[in-house]
Amino acid sequence: MATTARITWVQDALFTAESGSGHTITMDGSPDVGGRNLAARPMEMVLIGMGGCTAIDVASMLRKQRQDVRDIIVELEAERAEDHPKVFNKVKLVYRVRGKKLNRALVERAVALSDEKYCSATAMIRKSADVTHEIVLEEVA
């Protein structure tokens, strides 16, 4: 099954992107390449895609394990190589999971399975970057 996308130039370094599933987003370049800072940069979109991929994995697994999850936030910070093509060479993910009586071992297992097996975006980024993660659990009343 192919994944598709269509990128259309608007002006300067501003583009719209339509996914194969019919959703549209906007991307813009930085001012030094003619952009006007009107939308996320393409490499930010790559990082966002990685975060979304792993967040969906973790949420799905925790739901199946009947964990009482109230919120999941994945924060990502990446470093890029100095030379072109300036790939990510380090990415750190912080998983902030809020819920009632969360089982740390199950949350750690869900993150590990996403990281090592299920998240295709992480698998691709790992080819150029050292990927690390941290888990922060927050109990709610």
CATH architecture of the largest domain: 2-Layer Sandwich
Cα-to-Cα separation, first versus last residue: 44 Å
What would CATH call the homologous superfamily of the largest domain? Answer: K homology (KH) domain
- β-strand percent reads 35-45%
* Helical residues, percent: 25-40%
Over all CA atoms, what is the radius of gyration? Answer: 17 Å
Order of helices and strands: EEEHEEHHE
The largest pleated sheet is described as: 3 strands, antiparallel
Q: What best-fitting shape do the alpha-carbon axes yield?
A: elongated
Number of strands: 6
The name of the CATH topology of the largest domain is GMP Synthetase, Chain A, domain 3
Uncertain regions spanning at least 5 consecutive residues: none
The number of helical segments is 3
Count of discrete domains: 2
The top-level CATH class of the largest domain is Alpha Beta
Whole-number mean pLDDT: 97
Decide which structural class fits the backbone: alpha+beta
Strand order of the largest sheet: 1-2-3
